[in-house]
Amino acid sequence: MDAGGSFGVLYKSRSRNPVQEHVLRRKTSKDNCDRFIPNRSAMDFDYAHYMLMEARKGKENPVASSPAKEAFRKQLAQALNLNRSRILAFKNKPPTPAQSLFPETSSLQQAKPAKPRRSIPQTSDRTLDAPEIIDDYYLNLLDWGSRNVLAIALGNTVYLWDATDSSSSELMTVDEDTGPITSVSWAPDGRHIAVGLNNSEVQLWDSISNKQLRTLRGGHESRVGAMDWSNHVLSTGGLDSLIINNDVRIRNHIVETYRGHHLEVCGLKWSSSGQQLASGGNDNLLHIWDRSVASSNSPTQWLHRLEDHTAAVKALAWCPFQANLLASGGGGGDRCIKFWNAHTGACLNSVDTGSQVCSLLWNKNERELLSSHGFTQNQLTLWKYPSMVKIAELTGHTSRVLYMAQSPDGCTVASAAGDETLRFWNVFGTPELAKPAPKANPEPFAHFNRIR
Hints:
The chain contains 5 helices and 28 strands. It is mainly beta and 452 residues long. The strands form 7 sheets. Strands 1-28-27-26 form a 4-stranded antiparallel beta sheet, with no helix packed on it. The chain has a 4-stranded antiparallel beta sheet with strand order 2-3-4-5, with no helix packed on it. It is globular. Keywords: Cell cycle, Cell division, Mitosis, Repeat, WD repeat. One of its GO terms (cellular component) is anaphase-promoting complex. This is CDC20/Fizzy WD40 domain-containing protein.
């Protein structure tokens, strides 16, 4: 158990005329060489004499010029290729520099200016108070929804902060017997939110109407500290070491139960395809579950069981530009960020960060990874992937940075720590073309009000 875990030139070509071929191949008895080179000067003289005498007769007395003579003149001119046309001639103008015959040279001459290096602010853009936030590594108390609303659990209350107008509101509060709140997770539509409780229950809320829609019971025996959505399926991980898949559209919501951990499940992350689920636990184990494998064999059988970490595994992040790449972070006794091939289960790289890893987030616009840490610097570290060279270290928190969440546009990161502050960092910059949040399909949640 880990008590302090981590988060061309174009020429005019001519085919030889058959008559020309015949003339070139004629030989006299005196020709003994291998190839015949016609005496064009003598032939030119004969033709000039003919044109001077016979052509003049024709012009002075057209009747005297017979069709046979005219045909012979044309045939002779064609045979000798004496139409006075240029043998080598451009049909088009020489290419301009933009149409260079050597594109490599042209591209070097017209090279684009280098992309300016992104400036990363070393201080947070905004700091908000977060009183009564629970300083517990195994919980997940911060999430940013697709509608640009941030949810944070402080004690027994969930607060919502709208990033579009910086307004805040209270969503719900539970009593002491039910609380405290141990996890929050936005549904893909950005309207509905799941709230995990200390008493093993999970409540589903509509954030627009501020109404509770239903309560998921009977799955866990103790607190629910980790949750993540895959469309209409909500996966929950508990202190009881169980992972439960809940289909929120149906009355009997428990559809699968994964058993593989033997201590608290503190990290859950679905892949972008919704096919694979990564789970990390206080037992130092990392599992990858595949729904197709589970449905064909046994729901309790994992795809990969990874035992390389030597401390609790909470920080999990699927790579947005390489679907089968998973990053995981170990606790205080491990301090490593590891990269995994989710298809084969192979560990691709391991980097000792020097401090406990509490949370991981990928940059959606660049090949970068952000990690948050505990003792002793309580910093956020930006890494270049795959070299894992440090790009920046962001400091300001005075306690371990347990929770991180990313804005829908992928630019801003919110971090919450045991120092009871919520900080916003413009660490991932501004993309050239910010992608709008995907339009959520309301169908999976359309029948919430009908379920009891």
